[in-house]
Amino acid sequence: MSTITIDTxxxxxAGSVDDGKSTLVGRLLHDSKSVLTDQLEAVERVSADxxxxxxxxxxxTDGLRAEREQGITxxxxxxxxATPRRRFILADTPGHVQYTRNMVTGASTAELAIILVxxxxxxxxxxxxxxxxxxxxxxxxxxxxxxxxxxxxYEQRVFERIVEEFAGHAAELGLPSFTPxxxxxxxxxxxxxxxxxxxxxxxxxxxxxxxxVPVGADPxxxxxxxxxxxxxxxxxxxYYAGQLVSGTLRVGDRVTVHPSGETSEITGISVLGTEAxxxxxxxxxxxxxxxxxxxxxxxMITAGVDAxxxxxxxxxxxxxxxxxxLRVGDRVxxxxxxxxxxxxxxDLGGAAELTANDLGRITLRTAEPLALDDxxxxxxxxxxxxxxxxxxxxxxxxMADLA
Length: 403
Known about the structure:
- This protein is α+β, with helices and mostly antiparallel strands.
- 18% of the residues lie in helices and 35% in strands.
- The longest helix has 15 residues.
């Protein structure tokens, strides 16, 4: 009997305040029959208490008490649902400019971002900011959802004007392409089923697009990257444990340890305590090498000719996450995969400082070499965090630019 494999799509929503993000997600969950009866009953009770005639589907994702009381989203709300064709992990991110850092959190692992625009307001500053974040994070697929089409009479020209304006900014914001879809989250037009009100639109409904969009490339096809998390000693034998974040490793492969540059050969691979001939990303494994090498936590083991760049001068695009500003000359820690090194901020792209939610560019000088990939090539090994050495707080999320 054949087995049907159902894959998973991680996606994030973003948009300005009152563009209808939470309502859209709630409608998506409701109309795809992904809401439990008790959840819907709770939403109906809260909506009735507010004097609303119909259930406010935004409450399905606005889960914090403060959000429910204020009617806004202030945190990333994660939801999990499935259709017969695909599983989904969605992150409903805040719209306020002061919560841009939350969008970075929600979109950092997403393979698709839905950017909402209110059809009455068109493209606004926060629309472009969210598009810039999606471009910065190299989100592979972007949907421009023009919402509240019911409030503009489902006019085709309104939709086309917004798409044209957004397209004029997309390339410079790092979005080579995007898919526009006209919707009404409140009514349900083009969310799960195609709308009868917009016969001029010939594209897919939102859920149809989410079910059909290709999920990213198999990480095991990329160059092998194995950040060492633990060194386990069993007598004279050493095991190097961690997650193979990309590529494939096999017994007999010649490997290089970074940053030392020492080489060896894989003599054993253990996956969940069972010996294996090969390991594939993103498996967690332990490796044995033929030689007693000086390998420590934070080292990177690679195979093949596509080695990462060793550098102490790190250039990157960043989003500043902390309330504490970041300034030139600050001494910080840089955490890349399992490696943490001391660093100093050399340049902020001409800015005097970065404050919370700022997007910018940064140059750091590290005390030790890092085995970095360009973020455009690998989101896993091209990303890093800047840490406050005083209290361990995360200051900045960085995306390496080695070009």
